[in-house]
Specification:
Number of helices: 24
Structural class: alpha/beta
Radius of gyration: 40 Å
Number of strands: 24
Shape: elongated
Length: 848
């Protein structure tokens, strides 16, 4: 059975109707006879959604106990055993309770898809991993439950469930989303009109980008070259001249007028034109277009207008922005220029803007379209001059007799002109035709092929020799010019490649996309194999062309060493392009090696960190844990001894020593286990809304009575935390503060509200910590100063900070005014709804 298909209902915020739409789709499929089951759907007490569950088969959930509380999660094994055709799984970004197979629900979905089960799921835009920072800046809330963008992008179908902010707020006000006691707080915080509008825009743009990817793939697969103006894409043609900045800014303004507009700046490096592009200016323009939200592209092209139009049609652009030509007026005799050529050949579906600038007519701009070394028009004129010129000159000289010497010079001048215009072959033709006409019409005896005077034979020979020499020199100069321009174009490409590397754009996919784009190919892939007879595997790929399993199947393959090759599909490249391609291939191999070395370095770093933790753990076991064990064993041995008759006071003292040693062991082992969980990333907080004054008293249970004081006001806002993690973090902070506080000075635990957060301060009057050591004390196995070995293994503060960050808070150290250290634990506050007015007050307000 093949892989199942994934369909996702995407929404901008809770309550837009994703789950309802998913259930409606399930009913449609059941009516068609499809085997469809509900693997897990959260109706959140919404009556309309709960009604939609009627008539659908539901797989019982799995009960998981965590910290004394029972939770229900998706029963993956039951779904796989049931093996339905379609399974409904709500809330794709959900974090599972510890104890189930996978940490995330999307990982459960991946297993279902691998088993051939089609899955229909839901997700909100704020849960996409790449948008976490953007959503936090909009709403002020950091989403802890996220799903990788690639998981959603791989979905076979994404359907946007959209609703206007006003309609969503009305649903909220009517109690269709949250319980009535939470409506006011939600409307005044997360569900503000501005927040909902921004989230809706994010969702629309993300889905639009995804639709654009589908469109590009469809156009590539079906060879669609005609532009479909589904979205404004503006291509800016750059020459490397100073006018490029003006063009980029103008294109950016044009893009702003249309929603979702995109700017693509392109510089086409020629191999046969003489352009004067400044690498420094191109670098400045690249930075400018990227700062304005656009992209920069570097493309090889023999014919500038054709390459520009091919690029624009390839990216489905709707507009092209070009600058007015910088050529002088007399330079137009060589052709109409790029702007006029692009405008003439753009067709009806591509608008061309010619933008004026300060550099107009100050120097040559984009080069004229040419197809050969000397240009097509020059070669045509060369042949016309070489063949037609001697004929016209013969007619002229037949009427005006100037003498044989002058006639020879005129024919020679015509041959030189043909060589300058068309190169070697038009000059040879001119020399042949001219010598025949001179011999027939002007060399005695006239109208005969023979030559009577030997001096005339010498003159004709010199004429033919000079003509051939001039033609050869012109052709050689043209070839050298072509080679120099080609090398310059290659150096520009390689300099941009080096610039990408220096800027850190060294991902393999980015480099392959640059290769595909530069050479105008459909796809580019880096293939490798372990041995000479081993099968080829794809290490990286870019583009939407047909997949290539072997280098021999590609249109172009460039070997990289013995067991690696760069394969391109789309067209056959000329031999002169393979030199630059070889540089790209070598760089791709380097990037792949660098990526693997980085992965190995990360693994080695993780192993080294693990070894450091294990070494410290062994040190802790060898001393810090053995000390209380030795005390407990000695006390137990004494109590069991029959040689000594212990008094009740002695017995009580020994039992007290055993209890203290056991408590110390319990504390040390608890911190070691907590640190292990933090190091392995298995701490999954269950965020709930609680009051700090409910947790703080329990955090003081591990310190002597009277060694700590609480100052937590009852009006403090609730915080969104995991109660168990908060208790452990505060307990570690208080125990650490009591340990370093002088005798008779109680530790103060105070809390206060500040903006959208609550700060818990644990204040001691101990020796304090210098500024340079304030961060170091939060590292594992760190004990400040000359703390005795029995004082612990140095994990309390590290665990406290790890728990704080896991709950979305922070933990920092500050100096206590007057001496000592203050630990500041910052937590996210939960906004409380405004109290309802007294009925009498409400009546007076209504009357007023």
């Amino acid at each position: 059975m093949g892989r199942g298909k994934l369909r996702i209902y995407l929404g901008a915020a809770p309550g837009v109707g994703k789950t309802y739409a998913m259930l409606a789709e399930a009913h449609r499929r059941v009516e068609r006879g499809t085997d469809c089951v509900v693997a897990l759907v959260e109706h959140h007490g919404r009556s309309r959604t709960e009604v939609m569950l009627s008539g659908l088969e539901q797989i019982p959930r799995r009960e998981v106990e965590y910290r004394g509380t029972a939770f229900t999660e998706l029963d993956l094994d039951a779904v796989l055993a049931r093996a339905p055709r379609v399974a409904l799984v709500d809330e794709l970004a959900h974090t599972n309770v510890p104890g189930v197979r996978n940490a995330k629900r999307w990982q459960d979905v991946e297993e279902m898809l691998a088993a051939g089960i089609d899955v229909v799921s839901t997700v909100n835009i704020q849960h996409l991993e790449s948008l976490g920072d953007v959503v936090e800046s909009i709403t002020g809330v950091r989403q802890r439950e996220t799903v990788p963008d690639e998981v959603v992008r791989r979905a076979d179908q994404i359907e946007l469930v959209d609703m206007s902010p006003q309609a969503l707020r009305r649903r909220m006000a009517h109690g269709n989303i949250y319980q009535p006691d939470k409506v006011d707080a939600a409307l005044s915080n997360y569900f503000r009109p501005g927040n909902l509008t921004a989230l809706r825009e994010l969702a629309l743009l993300w889905v639009a980008d995804r639709a654009d990817e589908y469109l590009q793939q469809y156009r590539s697969e079906h060879r669609v070259s005609k532009i479909w103006g589904s979205r404004e894409r503006i291509v800016v043609g750059l020459t490397g001249g100073p006018e490029g900045r003006t063009l980029i800014r103008r294109a950016a303004r044009l893009a702003e007028k249309g929603a979702g507009g995109e700017v693509l700046a392109v510089y086409i490096a020629r191999s046969d034109g003489l352009t004067s592009a400044s690498p420094k200016e191109l670098a400045v323009q690249r930075t400018l277009v990227e700062d304005l939200g656009g992209t920069f592209h570097h493309v090889l092209g023999e014919d500038i207008p054709a390459a520009l139009l091919d690029f624009a049609r390839g990216v489905n652009a709707t507009q092209i922005v070009l600058g007015s030509s910088r050529r002088k007026a007399w330079q137009y005799v060589f052709g109409p220029g790029v702007g006029a050529t692009v405008a003439r050949e753009s067709g009806a579906d591509l608008d061309v803007h010619i933008v004026t600038h300060e550099e107009v007519a100050k120097g040559r701009g984009l080069p004229v379209a040419r197809g050969a070394r000397l240009g097509r028009s020059r070669i045509v004129w060369g042949w016309f001059t070489g063949i037609g010129g001697p004929v016209l000159l013969t007619l002229l000289l037949s009427a005006v007799h100037l003498g044989l010497a002058n006639d020879v010079l005129l024919y020679l001048a015509l041959t030189v002109a043909a060589a300058l215009l068309g190169g070697l072959y038009p000059a040879l033709a001119s020399a042949a035709v001219g010598s025949l006409l001179l011999n027939w019409f002007f060399t005695p005896p006239v109208n005969r092929i023979t030559i009577a005077d030997p001096r005339n034979i010498l003159a004709l020979a010199i004429f033919v020799g000079v003509a051939l020499s001039v033609a050869s020199v012109v052709d050689l100069a043209a070839r050298r010019t072509h080679q120099a321009a080609r090398l310059r174009a290659e150096s520009e490409i390689l300099s941009f490649l080096a610039g990408d590397v220096l800027r850190g754009e060294t991902s393999l996919e980015t480099l392959l996309e640059r290769v595909r784009e530069t050479f105008g190919m459909e796809s580019a892939a880096l293939l490798e194999r372990e041995g000479d007879v081993a099968p080829w595997t794809c290490a990286g790929r870019a583009g939407s062309g047909p997949p290539v399993d072997r280098p021999e199947d590609a249109d172009v393959d460039m070997p990289v060493g013995d067991h690696m090759a760069l394969a391109l599909t789309g067209r056959v490249l000329p031999a002169e392009d393979r030199r630059v391609l070889a540089a790209f291939a070598a760089q791709a191999a380097v990037v792949l090696d660098r990526r693997r070395l980085r992965e190995e370095a990360d693994r080695a770093r993780a192993l080294a960190e693990g070894n450091r933790i294990r070494t410290a753990l062994l040190a802790a076991v060898s001393h810090d844990l053995r000390t209380p064990l030795a005390g407990i064993k000695a006390a137990v041995t004494s109590l069991r001894s029959d040689d000594v008759a212990w008094s009740e006071e002695d017995r009580a003292e020994l039992l007290e020593g055993i209890e203290e040693g056991a408590d110390r062991l319990d504390h040390l082992v608890g911190n070691l286990l907590d640190m292990s969980r933090l190091q392995t990333g298995t701490v999954t907080p269950l965020i709930r809304e609680i009051d700090v004054d409910e947790v703080a008293p329990m955090a003081l249970g591990g310190v002597p009575e009277g060694s700590a004081e609480l100052d937590i006001p009852e009006t403090l806002p609730m915080v969104a935390v995991d109660a168990g993690l908060l208790e452990r973090a505060m307990a570690n902070l208080v125990e650490n503060a009591v340990k370093y506080s002088p005798a008779g000075r109680a530790v103060l635990v105070a809390a206060s509200a500040l903006a959208d957060r609550v700060e818990v301060r644990v204040v001691d009057r101990g020796p304090g910590v210098p500024d340079e050591a304030k961060d170091r004390i939060f590292e594992p196995f760190q004990r400040y100063g000359d703390a005795p070995r029995g004082a612990g293994v140095g994990l309390g503060l590290a665990v406290a900070r790890g728990f704080a960050e896991a709950m979305g808070g922070t933990l920092n150290a500050e100096d206590t005014p007057g001496g000592g250290l203050t630990m500041v634990l910052t937590l996210r506050a939960v906004a409380r709804p405004a109290p309802a007015p007294h009925p009498a007050t409400a009546e007076r307000q209504a009357a007023g």
